Amino acid sequence: MLLKRSLFTMLAALNLVAAPELPIAPSKVFAQPEPVSAPVTQSTSIAGILPVETLGVVMINTQDDRWQQLSQFNLFPTDLAFPGGIFYPAEAGMSFAKDVQPWLGDQFGVALLSAKSVLMVSSVKDQAALNQYVDRIKASRTKAPKEIQYKGATILEFEPEKPIYFTPSKPNQDLKLAPPDAFEVPKVAIAVLPGYFVSSDSAAAIQEMLDAQSKLVDHPKFQRIANNPKSSRAIATLYGKYTEAIKAITQISQAQLEELRKINPNSPVPPAFDPNQIDPLSQFYDTAEGYVWAEPTGMRLQLAVNLKQAVPEDLRSSLITRNQILERLPEVNYMMSNSQNLAVYWRVLTTALETQPTWKKSLDQVRQTLQGFIGVDDRDVLPWMNGEYVLFAYPTSKGFIPAMSPNLDIAMGMMMQTSDRPAAEAALKKFNTFITPRLGKPLVQQGEIAGQPFANYGAVANGRSLNLFSHGWTDDNTLIMLFGGGSMSEFNPKPQRNLTQSANFQAAIAPFPNANLGYFYVNQGAFMAFVNNGVLPAFMGRSMAGNPFLTQVQDTLASIRSISGASTITGDQVQFDGFLALASRQKR
Q1: Are 33 and 156 in contact (CB under 8 A)?
Q2: Where in the sequence is the domain holding 413, given as residue range(s)?
Q3: Are 285 and 548 in contact (CB under 8 A)?
């Protein structure tokens, strides 16, 4: 969310807006190779075989030392290693440790070549062991593969079928057919090339790779990533052509949904996306990059989109958030996200939405619904939110949600600064005029705290406010809205101790640049206390007692101290940094 927010900010300078990103949904791509004799080096980059036009690739380091850096934390097992069993075919009677690990080099990756071609590529350290693996794949099939000779390479294409099982005593000799209810082994295509093992769901994808005249490893923009010091520490590295990859992923997702409809005609009709209209920012985006690595205090993530033109220095400096509004939040928060000038983000977003008839129609429908439900819409509320703002959830025993169940102590809120208080007051008055006759005057309480007005909307029982919604001013230019609970008195005057004085919060943001566009923060300890003491008892009751699975999950999550992030704009790059602060395993 912070990365997307940063893109909106950058876009404000360019008068465009970002569209929603679609998740990568690669199909299960498995394949096996045909022997080729060639010298193999231990540190072969898979970019050395991928086409220069590759749309995107995720590269994972397979070496134990990288993964074992995470074993110092309670969140991970002591023997953490590359989870190769997830990526390689579980052919009957075979295992990753015995059949794949002996030949696997130091890099594995999933590459998106086009909307029709997704590959799995591995570097190879032992050609003989790989050849044995290929032989066992062949032996596990009842049908011989189709051999395709293409540009000096042999591609083996296996049709879907029921597998053959190796008997444990003689794994290379005694065979038996799989039982009738066994899963069908999918169609796969494989190729063994000098130093590499390649697999896909079709031979055409491998042929597309072999057609390339130039390789990704020689591309200057890829070299920028390869030469980044983070690459030498990373467990996983990402490279991609942002806009082109999003378009291809959309097409792949649509094709998969259409295949599901062939199997089940009653399944939902896939939405009709125009790949050329997915992201109006395409003219400004260049490549994307990302890194995941271990640090002494936790795990780090960095994602960035490189821009085709730099953001001017004066604009960048105007987007930096002072983070002063965080001083108005209580020291203990469950989670929060802050930035500034929501008015700009929203103006840019709506301007872009209104350029497309379909988007404009949806926006108009949302506005009509809001007007009918609460009497105001974004045009009443967003334009005056031009200062810092923060969304948050914090522990409180006051309000409607805490009254519903013991220990369900939570309220959600939004605090925002404005330089146009009259416009804000006009929006609040319009809302109050609309909602009061519908809710009933007895359920609307208005007053003042420290000379600033506030309003509560909800019931009062036994002298306790059960407000569903509240709003009030904490100073002349800062408005707060509370949803489902909380009290204005908890914020006005300022809390005795605020979020910036929290040691947990300071540790969570320590890895990030001070000059940023805002933070995201989850206080995992406080949040888990809320879940364990309030949420789980409310929904599970006595069934949670002595549940071993639940206990294990609770213990695992308890080892996370905080989840945090920050977004920045630096010249020609929009960047998001994430940090998972973890409890270290005690040494014995």
Answers
A1: yes
A2: 315-561
A3: no
